Amino acid sequence: MENSSFTTEEITEGLFRFIDNSPTAFHAVQNAARMLEEAGYKKIVCETAIGIRAGGRYYATRNDSALIAFRIPAGEMKGLRIAASHSDSPCFKVKETPEMDVEGHYVKLNTEGYGGMIMSTWLDRPLSVAGRAILMENGRPVTKLVNIDRDLCIIPNVAIHFNREINKGFAYNPQVDLLPLYGGVNPEASSENEEENKGKLKKKSLKALCAESLGVSEEDILASDLYLYTREKGRRMGVDGEFIVSPRLDDLQCAYGTLAGFLAADDGKKTEKEAKKEAQGEYGAVYALFDNEEIGSGTKQGADSTFLSDVIQCICDALELSGSARRDLLAGSFLLSADNAHGVHPNHPEKSDPTNRPYLNGGIVLKFQGSQKYTTDAYSAAVVRNICKEQGVPCQNFANRADVAGGSTLGNISSAHVSIPAADIGLAQLAMHSALETAGVKDTEYLVRLCQGLFL
Question: What EC designation does it have (predicted)?
């Protein structure tokens, strides 16, 4: 991707491909790694500094669901510029031994909620299963990604005739109302004998289906992490195509936009201004894609782990920076935490703060909160606004109403482990944590340009 040459259409098509090919966090990391390798990045083990050199480009993964990439300047490095996002989205996780028989006529899957989803949006739409399976090869556990790439399941609603009050509000029980239908009696094999039909309900297990998709035997799969995902693809909508609708916009829109900007700033072309910066010392560039933000980040692959600090320590070890030199490096660093933001809702504008009201296609959203669940302060906001100004990117603000409890994200969690100035940003969207979410078609491009400016 050449410096500043991309268009809204190219960015949008790239985003849709990335999301469509990333039904789970494992797939998102695989796709990010593929983009990095195509750009010349080399995979390393983040527990060691072996092989890391000045001027190099590297990435490391953890748990197959988190990734950190970085490039080190050939000359003096005066700090790090870091952009972080997350790979996971709210969904349903498939439990162990998931098949459940229903009266000898149906098979449903036993699942549980992952993250704070809008449950009703998952009903009555085509779903499938994806994730990872663990096999043993040469005495070592090996990950194989699984995607049953067809319409496989559905969570059927109860007819209004059996639930007359549903439009007045309904509390879904995830163990009762939200289990997906997986299979039923084969009509070609059924008979008039009820007992014979029950015997013909024996369906291929989900584990067997995964093994078949991988070309291995069922016994080869020792364990798996599988999730439901919606089969809808991203598309443009609106009278002028000004909106995008897609699953997993939170937070794959930011995951893709920050990565595209990270790579766009490294196209090998340097302007006179950039060459002058290089002579004065450059910043190292870091792209972080954490997992498990939707459930609190408190895992070995989440933002509330040592992953980022471990990678930074490897960089410092490779460059023989220790003690005060490492502290000086961090003092000159900056973290941009990118996780989507709530746009003003057209049917409920009263839900938004009276004066901090971001809109779709309105540009980068700076997120503020007095309790510091968002880490933005005056200094970090000024840094972001200055980059936006330099890149010609619009910038708007978000704050919760004082009488509404807000969420949190990566910024304050990450900066507690790596104590550097940080700002929380996002792109305005509607229906956050729905099975399908809505955002602005221009905003991904704005994020790419912001990150390109951050990393130049």
Answer: 3.4.11.-
Residue 211: pLDDT band (50, 70, 90) is: very high
What's the pLDDT tens digit per position in 243-301?
999 999 999 999 999 999 999 998 655 555 555 555 556 899 999 999 999 999 999 99
Cα torsion 265, 269, 273, 275 to 10°: value is 110
Query: Which 8-state DSSP code applies to residue 420?
Result: S
Phi then psi for residue 244, to 5 deg, are: -120, 145
**Cα separation, 126 vs 209, whole angstroms:** 17
d(CA 218, CA 209): 8
Return the number of other C-beta atoms located less than 10 Å from residue 152's C-beta: 20
Q: Is 94 helix (H, G, I), strand (E, B) or coil?
A: strand
Neighbours of 8 (CB within 10 A): 14
Cα–Cα distance measured from residue 256 to residue 15, given in angstroms and rounded to the nearest whole number: 6
Contact yes or no for 264/444 (Cβ under 8 A): no
Rounded to 10 degrees, what is the CA torsion of 409, 413, 418, 422? 40
Query: What is the reported pTM?
Result: 0.93
Complete domains list, the chain, with CATH: 8-89+247-455 (3.40.630.10), 91-230 (2.30.250.10)
Listing DSSP states for 359-374 in one string gives -TTS-EEEEE-TTSSS
Q: What three-state secondary structure class fits 387?
A: helix
**Could you identify the residue written with the tokens 């507690």?**
416
Q: Enumerate residues 6+ apart whose C-beta is below 8 A from 76.
A: 281, 282
Nearest to 424 by CA among 359, 344, 364: 364
The label of the residue with tokens 């059996």 reads 162
User: How far from 419 is each of 55, 288, 308, 337, 375, CA to CA, in Å?
Assistant: 25, 16, 11, 13, 11
Q: Report residue 200's pLDDT band, with 50, 70 and 90 as the boundaries.
A: low
DSSP state string for 307-362: HHHHHHHHHHHHTT--THHHHHHHHT-EEEEE--EEPPPSS-GGGS-SS----TTS
* Closest alpha carbon to 83 in 362, 321, 284, 369: 284
